[in-house]
Amino acid sequence: MNFKFMKQSIAAAVVAASIPAVATAALAAGTHGGGEDVGKPGTASDATRTIEVTMYDNYYEPETLDVKEGETVRFVIKNDGDLVHEFNIGTAKGHMAHQGEMMMMVEHGVLEADWINWDAAKKMQASMGHGAHDDPNSALLEPGQTGEIVWTFPEHATLEFACNVPGHYDAGMMGEINLTH
Ligand SMILES: [Cu+2]
Asked: Considering its fold, how many domains does the chain have in total?
């Protein structure tokens, strides 16, 4: 993997991108869900099962997820790629908003292609009120790292899991979450 090239790609994506109005509105409201009920953080002891998700450059295994309405699931997420990746549960609209936020993380030197500058993240959090990337619906992982999310799904929602690192969603790094009875 050519990191130099990836960094240039991300920088180019940042320059080329303009953050949609909907993204700005969602950021201002402090929500990633776009107003829709996306579920809430769960407790590990309530989890009915553990689903292992592996992240590669730039796709997930498995490609889609089947979850029961209202189910609490423990996700163990492993980044087996050479790049930073995210596993984020939300609506398509929410992901779009989050992509704008992560673009700003690139601009502030928080998000590099293959590592995360948490010192820069702290500075961004202090000056802008976001950037620490500590949302409970997301795991942002460097290559080789493993993370965990416990999530209680809502009764009705159209949800996706996605990587909002600039360029990755558009490269196909997203999958449907099928909510079943
Ligand atoms: Cu990714």
From this structure: 1
